[in-house]
Amino acid sequence: MNWVVSCTLCGSSYVYESGQGLPDMCPVCFEKGKKEVKKFLEKEQKRKEIVSISTPEFTNRKILKTLGIVSHEHIFGVGLVKELDLAKFNGGIAISWTEKVHSGKDLAIKSIEDEAIELGGNAVVGVEIVYKVLGAHNDMVMLLVGAKGTAVLVD
Questions:
Q1: Which of 81, 101, 125, 136 is the least buried, fewest Cβ under 10 Å from its Cβ?
Q2: What is the per-residue pLDDT for 20?
Q3: Who contacts 102 (Cβ-Cβ below 8 Å, separation ≥6)?
Q4: CATH superfamily name and code, 51-154
Q5: DSSP codes, the chain
Q6: If we measure between CA atoms, which residue out of 65, 145, 68, 69 comes closest to residue 109?
Q7: Residues contacting 80, CB < 8 A, separation 6+
Q8: Stretch 121-126: mean pLDDT, rounded?
Q9: How far apart, in whole angstroms, are the C-alpha atoms of residue 114 and residue 87?
């Protein structure tokens, strides 16, 4: 038996031949999805292989091509009252603040690595991390965490 069903992604109608389970997307969207998943998995593999270093050169690898400057800035707020929980202090360290700053640094580095991948690179050299307090407003401290470097292709 044949069914006329609508794709949940594009809304188009298509004919489905009965069998195991009713698909929720048309064959065109299904193929497009497969391509996007493949592209995503390829990018994830490249993310695992990329190297970011703070020095301008590798000691054991040769830079084949310089691709350009990559940078990312991330601004986030930390609550003075809500997140400055004295019970979470461990030896004078505000753990919740430390976790947010660390997450901001990780996001900035990941972003410049992604930008380097988009440029065709497999490394970022001369990475610099910047931390800056932008100010306070309504019991929130606004922090900037940024990263910059040079995207390169190495052997």
A1: 81
A2: 59
A3: none
A4: Hypothetical protein apc22750. Chain B (3.30.110.70)
A5: -EEEEE-TTT--EEEEESSSS--SS-HHHHHHHHHHHHHHHHHHHHHHH-EE-SSSS-SSS-EEEEEEEEEEEEEEEEETTTS--GGGBSSS-BHHHHHHHHHHHHHHHHHHHHHHHHTT-SEEEEEEEEEEEEEEETTEEEEEEEEEEEEEEE-
A6: 145
A7: 136, 139, 140, 141
A8: 96
A9: 37
Q: Which residue has the tokens 């703070």?
A: 54
CATH 3.30.110.70 residue ranges for the chain: 51-154
Among 125, 129, 114, 127, residue whose Cα is nearest residue 153: 125
Query: What does pTM read for this prediction?
Result: 0.69
Q: Is 151 exposed, middle or buried (0-12, 13-18, 19+ CB in 10 A)?
A: buried
Radius of gyration of the chain (CA): 23
Per-residue pLDDT of 47-93, as tens digits, reads 899 999 999 988 888 999 999 999 999 998 877 765 555 555 555 55
Instruction: Name the strands in the sheet holding 123-137, side by side, starting at the edge strand that comes first in the sequence.
Output: 51-52, 123-137, 140-154, 63-79
Show the tokens assigned to 116.
Answer: 């380097």
pLDDT at 138: 81
